[in-house]
Amino acid sequence: TLLKQKCQPESVDSVELLGQFKEFMIRYNRSYSSQGEADRRLLIFHDNLKTAEKLQALDQGTAEYGVTKFSDLTEEEFRSLYLNPLLNQQNLQRAMKPAAMPREPAPPSWDWREHGAVSPVKNQGMCGSCWAFSVTGNIEGQWFVKTGQLVSLSEQELVDCDTLDQACGGGLPSNAYEAIEKLGGLETETDYSYTGKKQSCDFTNDKVTAYINSSVELSKDENEIAAWLAENGPVSVALNAFAMQFYRKGISHPLKIFCNPWMIDHAVLLVGYGEREGKPFWAIKNSWGEDYGEQGYYYLYRGSGLCGINKMCSSAVVN
C-alpha cells in the first residue's frame, strides 16, 4: 500500500510520522473506511503538520501549533464542515444601529468568565452553525448582565427556525438577532437541544426564556471594543480562522498572509482580554468543544485588527 511505500522503516521521519498519526487516531477516535482512505488521510495529516510547522516558525506570538482534532482534514474540508463562508458576503449584512460609546476607558484586563456571564464551551459539530453559537453566547451574557441569571440558550432553534440564515450552510449574526426578535426569543438548550443538523422548526412561544429588544454594531477600534465589552458583556465577533485549524495553545499572532482580515469565515465570542508575558490578547470562546485549543478557547493577539477580529463586532440589546 501507499502507506508502506511512503513509510519504509529506514526513514526515521516516516516512522515518526506513522507514530504521530496512530496517536492522533487513538486520541480522536478515528477509523477509516478502507486502507486507501487511511493512506489518503495520512498524506493530508503530513501536509497539515508541515503547515503547522510553517505557522509555528513565523508566529509572532506565543502560540503552539501542531496536531489537533482537525489534522486529517484538507483545508477545503475543514472550511466546508466547520466554517461559514457567508460571513464574507458584505452585501448580505443587515444594517445595525451603532452601539453607544463606552462611558469609561477600558480597564487593563477583563474576563466575563470570572463574573459569571459565560456558559460552558459548546460544540457545533460538523455543521457551519458558528454564527448561532456566537449569537447565543452574546445573548446569554446580555441576559446575565440584565437579570443576574446565566441560562444556556438554544442554537438549534436558530438552525431550525431562522429563515434569514442557512442553518449548517452558514449565517450572519446581524440576521440572527432579527430572527430572534421576530420569533419572540430563545428557548433554553435543555428545552430545544442541539442536534447539529437542520430539522423542522419546533419553537414554542411558551418556552421562551430570554428575549432581546434590538441589536447594535460596535466600533472597529479595539480599545473601544475592549471598553464596551468590559462595561456591557461578551461580544459576538468574526475572524479569519485559517490558523485555528492547527492551534493548540498560547497567544496566536499569525502573519497577515495566513490570516487575511478581509476573508472572515468564523463567528466566535469575545469574553475578555488582557496580557500574558507582555503580549496583549483577546480571550475567544469557540464552539468546537472543550478538546480544542485551551479548554475550548482561542487566544489571539490584540491591537492590530489581526485576522479581521475587529470588523464584525455586534451585540444584542436587552432592555
TrEMBL record:
GO terms for biological process: immune system process; proteolysis. It catalyses: The recombinant enzyme cleaves synthetic substrates with Phe and Leu (better than Val) in P2, with high specificity constant (kcat/Km) comparable to that of cathepsin L. Keywords: Disulfide bond, Glycoprotein, Hydrolase, Lysosome, Protease, Signal, Thiol protease, Zymogen. It comes from the Eukaryota. The keyword Iron does not apply. Residues 106-317 form the Peptidase C1A papain C-terminal domain. GO terms for molecular function: cysteine-type endopeptidase activity. Coiled coil: none annotated. CDD domains: Peptidase_C1A. It is found in: Lysosome. The keyword Glycoprotein applies. Its EC number is 3.4.22.41. Pfam families: Inhibitor_I29, Peptidase_C1. GO terms for cellular component: endomembrane system; intracellular organelle lumen; lysosome. Residues 21-78 form the Cathepsin propeptide inhibitor domain. Thiol protease which is believed to participate in intracellular degradation and turnover of proteins. Has also been implicated in tumor invasion and metastasis. Belongs to the peptidase C1 family. This is Cathepsin F. It comes from Esox lucius. The gene is CTSF.
